[in-house]
Specification:
Blueprint lengths: L6 E2 L2 E2 L1 H11 L8 H7 L5 H9 L6 H15 L6 E10 L9 E5 L4 E15 L2 E9 L3 H4 L2 H6 L12 H14 L6 E4 L1 H4 L2 H9 L3 E6 L4 E3 L17 E3 H8 L4 E8 L2 E14 L8 E10 L4 E6 L7 H9 L2 H13 L10 H25 L8 H13 L4 H26 L9
Parallel strand pairs: 3-7, 7-8
Antiparallel strand pairs: 1-2, 3-5, 4-5, 5-6, 8-14, 9-10, 11-12, 12-13, 13-14
Helix pairs in contact: 1-13, 4-13, 14-15
């Protein structure tokens, strides 16, 4: 189905794509080109390295194919949600495209790393990566020699913020015809109100996390004159509004999970924001979730006034699944284990990881009636057996069944405990 995407320079390199994706689904401890060639018979390091770093096959058509196919598999149509988030990749040295001393969210501190902005398509509990952009700090875009060494295209040597890269991914998804009605993002993007306004202008509904000190108007401001600062009447932080309204929060269950039902307190209030790029204020919902551990998350959402609290709470909790995509990609599919310095290699690697993830999603869909607990790890175990055959098929199946049995026992135990409290909301 995808071999034609690898037709370049009067030759087809889909065999190398097959080898690379197969390698990503092995149990090789380090899934870089060198280790993959050691693991898979018939592969040559020079061929695979050229395929990743220099072969001019394009990523955009593959991302479009992935998005359209994922949209059909998920089956949600306008109910699908496009999630935006960044992921960081720790690197040594200063040669890899985009590497710099910058905040690494995975480690919670400044680190020498690359940062990618990603989109993921989700519906219910299923998710798939659907786009990627490598973030270039200004230390890179202002250094033409460094960009030349990493073979960064000249059109990409313009500094763009992470929200600007996120908007590119949203626009591209819409242009490609990928079906989604909602857009979710964390506070890095949610605090950019110009981005929120553009999403609303597309006719999409955003659920955007914001920081606790985000200022909003609790009363609609006069549209004839833009208010200024916190001294204006009705301007408050979202945290202050939550503290006032917390007593009226409702208790909801977002979903059933392996560790029990995800219970939250949920509060919403109508507020207004006024993006600098808008002539009039924009009415939105302030949505607040307080989890069992006491953590609080604030979000702004432009859903209709008729939207039920259950729907808003579910959508606010939906952003978790982009983290699941990153976890599966990094722990099972070698998302962060590449060893390549060039711009093209990074983007090639990410779309190949997404293709591997697509395969695992399809396999899980095929067997979900008989094996609803089938995970990415389980599929990778089966594929690893197919390509490496370190164990018999029966041995792999027995290992997966034992793993599922342990998970089922844990879930039954949690359900017995949870049944004491009625569920108000399930996904």
């Amino acid at each position: 189905m995808i071999a034609h995407f690898f037709d370049v320079a009067r030759r087809n390199v889909s065999e190398h794509a097959h080898q690379y994706i197969a390698g990503l689904m092995t149990r090789c401890p380090r899934k870089n080109v060198e280790r993959l060639c050691e693991t898979l018979p018939g592969t040559k390091f020079e061929n695979l390295q050229y395929f990743l770093s220099e072969s001019p096959w394009a990523c955009a058509p593959l991302w479009k194919w992935i998005g359209l196919r994922a949209s059909r598999i998920l089956g949600g149509g306008a109910e699908n949600m496009l999630l935006l988030d960044e992921s960081c990749f720790t690197k040594k040295g200063d040669k890899s495209a985009g590497v710099a001393r910058q905040y690494n969210g995975r480690l919670g501190k400044v680190d020498n790393c690359q940062v990618g902005v990603f989109s993921a398509l989700t519906h219910d509990t299923r998710v798939l990566l659907s786009g990627a952009r490598l973030y270039l700090p200004e230390s890179w875009t202002e250094d033409s020699e460094r960009c030349e060494a990493a073979v960064i295209p000249k059109l990409e040597r313009v500094f763009r913020t992470k929200p600007e890269l996120a908007w590119e991914l949203i626009e591209q998804a819409a242009t490609d015809g990928i079906e989604f009605g909602w857009v979710g993002m964390d506070a890095v993007y949610g605090r950019d109100q110009a981005l929120l306004l553009k999403i609303a202008g597309m006719g999409k509904t955003f659920m955007a996390d914001v920081n606790h000190d985000q200022l909003v108007w609790s009363k609609e401001p006069n549209a004839t004159e833009r208010p200024k600062g916190v001294s204006e009447s009705g301007v408050q932080t979202v945290e202050a509004l939550w503290k006032k309204g917390r007593r009226s929060a409702v208790r909801l269950v977002l979903r059933d999970a392996e560790n029990g039902r995800v219970r939250v307190r949920f509060y919403r209030e109508r507020v207004w924001i006024w993006p600098n790029t808008s002539e009039i204020p924009l009415g939105v919902w302030l949505c607040v979730i307080e989890r069992a551990d006491g953590s609080v998350k604030y979000s702004l959402c432009n859903a209709d006034e008729e939207t039920k609290e259950e729907e808003l709470a579910k959508r606010q909790g939906q952003r978790y699944f982009v983290e699941r995509a990153f976890e599966d990609g990094k722990s099972q599919l070698g998302m962060g284990q590449y060893q390549a310095r060039r711009w093209l290699a990074w983007h090639h690697h990410m779309v190949l990881v997404a293709l591997a993830m697509m395969f695992t999603l399809e396999e899980r869909e095929v067997v979900k009636a008989d094996s609803p607990l089938m995970s990415v790890r389980d599929v990778v175990d089966l594929i690893a057996w197919y390509f490496e055959k370190p164990r018999t098929g029966t041995e792999v199946e027995d290992a997966i069944r034992a793993r599922h049995k342990r998970r089922e026992q844990s879930m039954r135990s949690k359900r017995r405990r949870d049944n004491r409290v009625p569920a108000i909301l399930t996904m």
